[in-house]
Amino acid sequence: MSDHPTNFVGDPNVAIKSSIEAAIPGAKCDSSGGGGHFNIAVVSAAFEGKKLLEKQRMVLSAIAHLMKGDAAPVHAVDSLVTNTK
Amino acid sequence: MSDPTQARIDGLVKENKVLLFMKGTPQFPQCGFSATCIGILDGIGAKYNTVNVLADPAIRDGVKAYSNWPTIPQLYVEGEFLGGCDIMKQLYASGELAQTLASYIAPVTAPKLTVTPAAAETLAAAIKDAGPGQVLHLTCGATFQYDLSIGDARPADFTCESNGVTVHIDRASAPRLDGGTIDFVNDARGGGFQITSPHEPPKVRAMSVTELDEKLKKGEPLQLWDVRPDAERKVAKIDAAKQLDEQAWKIVEALPKDTMLVIHCHHGGRSQRAAEQLVKSGFTKVYNLTGGIDAWSTQVDSKVAKY
């Protein structure tokens, strides 16, 4: 696991989960990882009929504040899975 | 667009039909995600350009804003943002990426490959052992390093069947492997696969002393040259070998380039270097005598003195 220094206080996985679930209606999110790298899986009916790019954008925009700047807690999303159920 | 960086990025994605913003270069990617994307693009044989964001901090931040995407790498096709590494992987796996990039994939015809019965037997067993869903891949790099491996099937790869074995070949390797052969050979070092391709540039080949003896006895047209100086030739020499000194070198260089040249010395080191020079000069059938005159004395003619 690579290490990326961050000034974030708390568990980034919890922050990722709550940010995504707050931004996407009815979303259930699982986030795992650390050291700046995370694997995220989101299930939401809101993805229905959307393109892969749009679905990933919805998720990434929900955690944009966690990815901004060099000391951000989220350096990279190693894998991002979006499902409707 | 008022921001000059945004205008530059806009120009780049419009000028380059397939453009990857990445960390590093295709030869030396500086991040695993960028390396994965290059592997995917090369794997489907797409023509693309890259921008190294590490060389330009303004672009590095600017492209994130331009695409409204938080990470690098980013792939643009015909001015449209297609996605990052994760999306590329998914589109590649589903075969959609090859469709999207169809106009930028050079037409490559399916290669023909021969698997010899000896190789087929060993390979079939290995594929069977690997379990369901696992297939045999053969790649050939730009400098003709071959690699046989077993793994998951990849979309857009070609499949060649020979002697009951199916070989999966990626589009970048395909032209280099067309007409090639996978053989299984047993030599002094044990058994191993030997892969050859007619597209491989000429290189120095090895000839054993027994092979040379047979060829000389059959009277095959070859020229045997000894790179050792007079002092060593006084101690021992092979009758058929002429001395390759400076003067003889000029005569050799004037020979037809497809002349079979066999070069020897005491153990094979000096002659290897001379043989490499001859390949560089354009000769296509250059052999280094393995083990040199010492091996000749041991295996072929004990009357030749050892020293």
Q: What's the arrangement of strands in the largest beta sheet of chain A?
A: 1-2-3
Pick out the low-confidence regions of chain B.
Answer: none
The helix/strand class of chain A is alpha+beta
| Distance separating the two termini of chain A | 30 Å
Q: Which geometry of chain A do the CA atoms define?
A: elongated
Count the DSSP helices of chain B.
12
* Major sheet of chain B: 5 strands, parallel
CA-CA gap between termini of chain B: 80 Å
Key terms:
heterodimer; A: 85 residues; alpha+beta; three-stranded mixed beta sheet; 3 helices; B: 307 residues; alpha/beta; five-stranded parallel beta sheet; four-stranded mixed beta sheet
Topology:
The complex is a heterodimer of chains A (85) and B (307).
Chain A: H1 12-23, E1 28-34, E2 37-43, H2 52-62, H3 64-67, E3 76-83
Parallel strand pairs in A: 2-3
Antiparallel strand pairs in A: 1-2
Helix pairs in contact in A: 1-2
Chain B: H1 4-15, E1 18-22, H2 32-43, E2 49-52, H3 57-67, E3 74-77, E4 80-83, H4 85-94, H5 96-100, E5 113-115, H6 117-130, E6 134-140, E7 146-152, E8 158-162, E9 165-169, H7 174-177, E10 180-187, E11 190-196, E12 205-207, H8 209-218, E13 223-226, H9 230-235, E14 242-243, H10 246-253, E15 261-264, H11 269-280, E16 286-289, H12 292-299
Parallel strand pairs in B: 1-2, 5-10, 6-9, 12-16, 13-14, 13-15, 15-16
Antiparallel strand pairs in B: 1-3, 3-4, 6-7, 8-9, 10-11
Helix pairs in contact in B: 1-3, 2-4
Explain how this protein is built.
The complex is a heterodimer of chains A (85) and B (307). Chain A is an alpha+beta fold and 85 residues long. In chain A, 32% of the residues lie in helices and 26% in strands. Chain A has a 3-stranded mixed β-sheet with strand order 1-2-3. In chain A, α1 crosses α2. In chain B, α2 links the parallel β1 and β2. In chain B, the strands form 4 sheets. Chain B has a 5-stranded parallel β-sheet. Chain B has a 4-stranded mixed β-sheet with strand order 2-1-3-4. Chain B has a 4-stranded mixed β-sheet with strand order 7-6-9-8. Chain B is elongated, with a radius of gyration of 27 Å. Chain B contains 12 helices and 16 strands. Chain B is α/β, with parallel strands linked by helices. Classes of the chains: A alpha+beta (85), B alpha/beta (307). The interface between A and B is medium-sized, with 14 and 13 residues.
